[in-house]
Write a structure and sequence with these properties.
With 144 residues, the protein is of the alpha+beta class. It has a domain at 37-81 and 97-135: Immunoglobulin-like (Sandwich). Helices cover 14% and strands 33% of the residues. The chain has 2 helices and 7 strands; from the N terminus they run ααβββββββ. The chain has a 4-stranded antiparallel beta sheet with strand order 1-2-7-6, with no helix packed on it. Strands 3-4-5 form a 3-stranded antiparallel beta sheet, with no helix packed on it. A hairpin with a 3-residue loop joins strand 1 and strand 2 (49-55). 10% of the residues are buried.
Length: 144
């Protein structure tokens, strides 16, 4: 026996998909699609410079490299695997290790001679200054 066409519209597949999405969000909280890579970075912009900070726990200074080319800042390095005593088996292992790389698109070209970087207590702070020729200039308007 055929069912009336109106019964097809009572079971909205999009409503079911929405319900399933809400259920998944409840079971697995957090926004997985927008999760940042390692290391997470904060970027601030001013008229004169861009400031970047990044927390790098467990990374040694000699294992960090930063480069700047045009409008791209790249932070790369390696966090070495922790040493475990011989015969020990991991019970819980949540901290990742290995090589990493993050590239950040900057809002303007950076003067590579005016880059300052500091690393203290596992926090990298970088100031990237804008070249004088690239800074906006106020233009005087003359009246008649």
């Amino acid at each position: 026996m055929l069912t009336p066409a109106s019964s097809f519209f009572r079971n909205d597949p999009f409503a079911q998909l929405e319900r399933m999405t809400r259920d998944m969000d409840r079971m697995f909280p957090g926004n997985w699609s927008n999760a940042p890579g390692f290391p997470a970075v904060n970027v601030w912009r001013g008229d004169e410079a861009v400031a970047i900070t990044s927390e790098l726990p467990g990374v040694e200074l000699e294992d960090i490299e930063i480069t700047v080319k045009d409008t791209t800042f790249t932070l790369s390095g390696e966090r070495k695997a922790p040493d475990a005593p011989k015969g020990a088996r991991w019970h819980l292992r949540e901290r990742s290790h290995g090589k990493f790389s993050r590239a950040v698109k900057l809002p303007f070209v950076v003067d590579p001679d005016k880059v300052e970087a500091r690393f203290k207590n596992g926090v990298l702070q970088v100031a990237l200054h804008r070249p004088d020729a690239d800074k906006p200039r106020r233009i005087e308007i003359r009246g008649e």
